[in-house]
Structure formats: C-alpha cells, structure tokens
Amino acid sequence: MRTIVVATALTVAIASSPVATAEPATPYLPAPTGRQPVGTTSLYLKDTSRPDTWVPSVPYRELMVSLFYPTSSSHGPKRQYMTPQESVANLERQNIPGLALDVFSTVRTNAVVDARPTGGRHDLPLVVLSPGYTQPRATLSMWAEDLASHGYVVAVIDHTYENRATTFPDGHVTSCAACDLDGPDHPEFDAKLAAGRALDTSFVLDELVGRHPAWRYANLIDPSRIGMTGHSAGGSSTIQAMLADQRIRAGANVDGSNHVPIPDSGLARPFMFMGETDEYVPGQPGPYDDWETDWQHLTGWKRWLMVTGMVHQSFTDLGVLAGQLGVDLGGTIDPNRGMDLTRTYLRAFFDQHLLGRAQPLLDQPSARYPEVSLARTSTPFLPAPTGDKPVGSLPVYLKDTSRPDPWVPSVPYRELMLSLFYPAASSRGGKATYMTPEESTALLTDSGIEPLDLLSTTRTNSVAYARPAGHHLPMIVLSPGYTKPRATLTALAEDLASHGYVVALVDHTYENAATTFPDGRVVGCASCDQPHDPAFWQKLELGRAADVSFVLDELTRGKWAGLVDPSRIGMAGHSVGGASTIPAMVGDDRIRAGMNIDGSTEFEIPYPGLSRPFMFVSHERVPDATCAPGNESWERDWPRMTGWKRWAEVAGTQHASFTDVGLFADEWGVDIGATTGGLRTLVITRAYVNAFFDQHLRGRPSELLDQPGYPEVAFCHRP
C-alpha cells in the first residue's frame, strides 16, 4: 500500500540528496492566506472506554491533538513544530548528509500558543485532520494554519503508536508499535488501521462537541458543521470515520489508497478525492484503482481532482520543508505551488459544504490552477471556450405556419426551439441553463444515472440574455443527433461563439427526448413510435433541411438582420444532424459550407453534385484500423462532392464522443467504449470545426485542414 508504507516525508529522496555545503537556513512554514491571525493549543485526551489499538496491555487509548483556530493577535510565542525527540525519530533512519536530526524542532511556525480564540457561541466550523501512516500530526500544520486563518477550528490528531514518535505532556514518548506488525497491504492490518482511526476521530469529536468538552473554548464550535480530511492513510481513514460518525458532514481524501471499500449502502455526504496523476488514474487498471470502485458508492456531491507534477508528499508540509532543506522529493511542481493549490482546493471544499459558500473552483477547470484537472464530477460542467470573446446565449421560439408538423400532422404548424449563441459585450451575468429538469429527466430515464434532473445543473459558460457584440457576423447552424436535445452540442456552440460566430442550435421538435417551450409545454419524441426504415430516415433528413431553411429565413431578417451576415452561413451537425447537412445544402444555397460529424446519410446527392466545401469527420469504425472501409453512404456521396472536401477519422473515439455526452461520461465515470477521452475529443472537434469554417466563411486558410495536427486524426480521402 504505497500511500501508507512511506515511512517519512524524505524516504524516497535520500539516496540522491545533495550533500549540504553550508548550514541550511532555518526552515519555516509559509504564512497562512486568511486575514485572521492563528492561535494554537495542544490537548491530551485519554479514552478509558477501550484499550490501545496497537498495545493492548495499555488499558486506554491516549491521544495528542493540536487545535488551531482564529485569534485576534499575532503577538506571542509561536508553536514548536516538533519536539527534538520527534524530529530525531523521523529523520534518524534517513542519513541525510549535512542535515541535523533535530532540524524539524527548529521550524518556524505562524500559530500563537494558547492565544485566546475569536468567535461567538457555536460560530466556528470544525475540520479534523488525520496524517499519513508513520507521520506525526505536525506534517499537516500548513493545512491547519491556513484553514484557521479563514475562520475554522482545526483538530489535527496524532494516532498514537502509528507514527515514529508522539510526545506527551508528562515527557514520555511513544514510538511506532504498529510498524512492528504485519503492515500495509495486509487486509487485516488495513481494516484495523481504518477502524482504529475512525474510533480516534469519534472520540476526539466527543471531547470537542460532547457534553463535557476538553477544551475550554469548545462552545465556539458549531457541532452541525464538522468536516474531515487527511493525507495518505489519513485521507483513506476519512471515509471510514464518516461511515461510523454522522456528525462528519463532508470529507476529502488527499492521495490515500482506500483498502477498506465503501459498502454497497454507499456514502451520501459530500466527498472529494485529490491525488497525483501518477496514481489513481480514472478508468485505468492499476495497483491503486480503489478510488474507481469507491466512486460508484459515493452517492452525494463528489469530485475527483488530479494534480500534475505532484508526488505523494507534495501535498504535505514535508514537500515545502524538504525544498527548503535542499532535499529533492521528485515531482515537477514547485513545493510552494503544490501547497498553495492543496490548501486552496481543500478550503474551497469546506467553504462550500460547511459554510454554504458556492465555489466555482470546484465546478470546472481553473485557469489559475492548470495543474488541477477534474477527473470525475457529480455536477456536469462544460470546459471553457477557447476564443477570446465572452459568450452570450438565449432561447428563441419560432413558428412556421406554412406547413404542418411532419410527425404530428394534427398540429397545423411547425414550431421550433433554438439556442442562439453569439459574442457578448460582457462576461458578467448569470449563466445560461443547459436544459430544463424535464428535458434532463426524459434523456436520463433508464440510463442508470441519478438524479434524473442532473443535467439541468450543468455549469455552462455563456451569459444568459447578454447583449450581443458585433454585427454582420458569420453564422453556423448546428443540428443534433436523433433523440438528442440541442443542448448536447453546447460545448461546441459556445466555443464557436467565442471565436466570433453566431450559432443557431436547433431542437427538431418531436425528434428528441423532450423539448420545453416558453409556455411550459414539454413535448416528447413522437417520431420514436414510427418504423425506422429507410423511408423514415429520408423523411427525417428532409424535414430537418426544411427546419434549417426556415431558421435561416427568420434569422437573416427582422431583429437579427444586423447581427448575421447572410452571405457567410455554414452548417454542421452530429449523427443524423450531420447527415441532414447534405440535403439542407442541396435545398438551400445560402449554406456556403457544411460538415457531417459521424452521421450516415440516407439522402443521396443528386446530379450534378454538391460543389460547395464539405467535410466528413468519423469515429474510429474498426479498432486499430485507420480509415477501414465500410462507410457505404459516405463512399457513395464522396465522388458527388465536386468542390473542396475532406474526410477525417479520429482514433479512439465512439459515436457519442463528439458531443457533450462524451464529456459527461468522463466526468461521471461512465464507459462509452472510447479510448480517447471526451475532453481530448472536444479539443480536436472544436479545432477542426473552427478551422473549417474559418477557411470557408472567413477566407482564413488553415494548415490543420491539409496536414492533421493531432496524432489521433487521419485523413481517409483527399480530393
């Protein structure tokens, strides 16, 4: 068990550590980031209800706990980081040339010993911290000081006999009795460790928020706002503590392997995984794939964050202190940067779930912290657009009274809902709704994904009803796949708009799971009840072509006329939406360029062919066989395209990879059979769609259309 077996912070780096040529400067903890000074005190706690976990001859369990809390003044003696005995115990096996064994007793800290805390009765949330196996509680001091500076009480537990040394008030020092047993990677040991730490945590909570608290200022703690996190074994123990004690409202595991699985009954309270990219890789088998299993049993709010460049100890004080002492632990991230992002994300997690302060940082990747990726999430989000323009969007209701509905002829008109995306004058304002709860429920029913209205919570990037910026802009019509609502192409639409396009994303009524109209009506998929023979698909494609021509009529006149340039219109779509691009272009020469993303075409291009620019983009039809033959409809259409044309295939993708569905599958841990991830596929799709329309609507040639710029992309046919 890698995350538990590390003996001390410096174990992994000693062999290659440089010999110190001069006395190193006094190590120190960087200042906390909050506005409040930090106080600290130590508690000695004795649980007489049980013998010691590791030394049964001791008829009680004794613990040392460091409390950190906000105070009013930074003046006074600062807390000693470790005692000399603790420092020696943690470093004596390391044999680091030039490094004094008692160096950790000299670390300068920021917390004032026994300062009077600030706050009112039941005013302060509490966070419990649990260190890694063999690690003293001191190694999480930077987490604790930072949280306290932002208004938390923090209790850091030394789990006696599980670390190299714990010093008690009477002067006796305990060592690591657990280290002499059959240790990590033995199921019985792992279970005992987790269960014992859960008992330790509950006992500490009893002593802090119970009837007879051990701290004189315990009435400042709000017992309804308690969280827990830890590093390595301390992180994995957080789950077991939460399962055993309902008082812990939210928890996080920082780089700890969970060798005791979550039971099938699950854990419904908020939880976050945060780990290094070399381990715990989502969807990949490996020695530490227990997060993947436990993820399925976390049934509440949840996140899985991966941090590039970190090693196991980068998350703790020891990453920073090792850097100051000239010891290289590995990794490519600056130690102070690693601590900064660790503290920032942990604080954001507890701010959201203990203080009720929404944290956008937890909803999508941040430009401030590009090292952090959201590997899994329970709240869907769309990656930020890549263009330099803010994006606005609004719903548009259109009614074509010139024809009855093709699927429900008793309705004497065709009504459509669009989402219109465009460059906006400002990025300020509330974000647009992805889809309604009713649309989400209709789409997710029978999918096994819950709650059914989950997609209505998706975080978008476009500002609802923002004022448009610009005039006479090129426009692209997007058409989604059959049964899929227009929302499933939103990530592509937002990106195009951020590059200066107006984008009309069309819901083809009665052809998707659900469409919501402004008056509150929700209509379903009437076409789904009809036989899906070749005549059906041709009717579908021709009907969509008629929808698109009507949309062009409406958006190139009236109040939209100044925004849209009618001489620069393109169309693209996914699946049958892509297939419908061909009859739409044949029937309406206002569409100057078109793209079919993975859609088989029933409609045949008539003589003399289609002379305007066109591009096919396909998923990998045969694994490990680039551009395998067999796409009969595209082979039929290819020679009838007499203008500029391309045919590209993206390796490792599946049909849904090109839509937001591929993104959500990655975020939720749902396997759609793709080996190229949803985010990577979106990057490629956005790049080629932008390049294609930039070249053919704006006259900006792109090398990407002549030489594939991504290793996953191959051109199957050239003119």
Automatic annotation (TrEMBL):
Repressor among keywords: no
First and last residue of the signal peptide: 1-22
Keywords: Hydrolase, Lipid degradation, Lipid metabolism, Signal
Listed SUPFAM superfamilies: alpha/beta-Hydrolases
Sequence intervals crossing the membrane: none
InterPro entries: AB_hydrolase_fold, PET_hydrolase/cutinase-like
Any one GO MF annotation of this record: 1-alkyl-2-acetylglycerophosphocholine esterase activity
Domain PET hydrolase/cutinase-like as annotated: residue spans: 463-618
Source species, domain of life: Bacteria
Any one GO BP annotation for this protein: lipid catabolic process
PANTHER family for this protein: PLATELET-ACTIVATING FACTOR ACETYLHYDROLASE
Protein's UniProt name: Platelet-activating factor acetylhydrolase isoform II
